[in-house]
Write a sequence for this structure.
């Protein structure tokens, strides 16, 4: 009876440890975009749309723009236009893994969007791109989805041995083999009597 209870407890523990949900490690902070030839409100709209598209396109998390702004004001209180050094400090305080910085400008109906995604821990640029878009601001906001797909790295498939179900099955098999072996070995009366 004790063996059956130990086996059941081991199986439950194995399944419970394997069922922990795994989420992407990507957490992105989007800095305010530098405005060149456009009102700051337009750059702010593009930043908000960019944050929404990143959240829709990835399984990761996007730090709320208000939280990034708050972290920037604490990291560099005297700077009106924060630079990337302040951005790294703010991203670390917001627990972001990546920082997106850039600029948004326009001449007439021609808009230019420059973005750079940097790994906060290493300080290395992951990707950067320059996009030229034609049309009004609403068209620019609608065009951000393919830009985000090129900017933000797609999550890589995990190897089979890192999946929870592999180790759940392996743990169940090992637990079953040990339980059966112990049950067979500890049966009373089947032992050989030595003189």
């Amino acid at each position: 009876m004790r063996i059956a209870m130990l086996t059941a407890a081991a199986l439950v523990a194995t399944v419970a440890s394997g069922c922990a949900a795994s989420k992407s490690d990507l957490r992105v902070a989007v800095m305010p975009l530098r405005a060149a030839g456009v009102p700051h409100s337009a750059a702010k709209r593009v930043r908000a749309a960019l944050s929404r598209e990143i959240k829709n396109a990835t399984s990761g998390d996007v730090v709320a723009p208000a939280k990034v702004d708050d972290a920037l004001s604490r990291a560099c209180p005297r700077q009106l236009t924060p630079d990337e050094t302040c951005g790294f400090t703010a991203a670390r305080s917001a627990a972001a893994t990546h920082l997106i910085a850039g600029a948004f400008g326009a001449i007439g109906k021609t808009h230019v969007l420059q973005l750079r995604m940097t790994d906060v821990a290493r300080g290395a640029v992951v990707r950067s791109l320059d996009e030229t878009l034609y049309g009004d601001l609403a068209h620019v906001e609608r065009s951000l989805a393919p830009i985000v797909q090129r900017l933000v790295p797609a999550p890589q498939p995990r190897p089979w041995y890192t999946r929870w179900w592999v180790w759940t099955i392996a743990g169940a098999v090992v637990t079953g083999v040990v339980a059966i072996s112990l049950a067979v070995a500890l049966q009373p009366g089947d032992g050989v009597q030595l003189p």
Q: What stands out?
A: Helices lie at 2-18, 40-57, 65-75, 84-93, 137-142, 144-151, 164-185. The longest helix spans residues 164-185. The first strand starts at residue 27 and ends at 30. The mean pLDDT is 80.
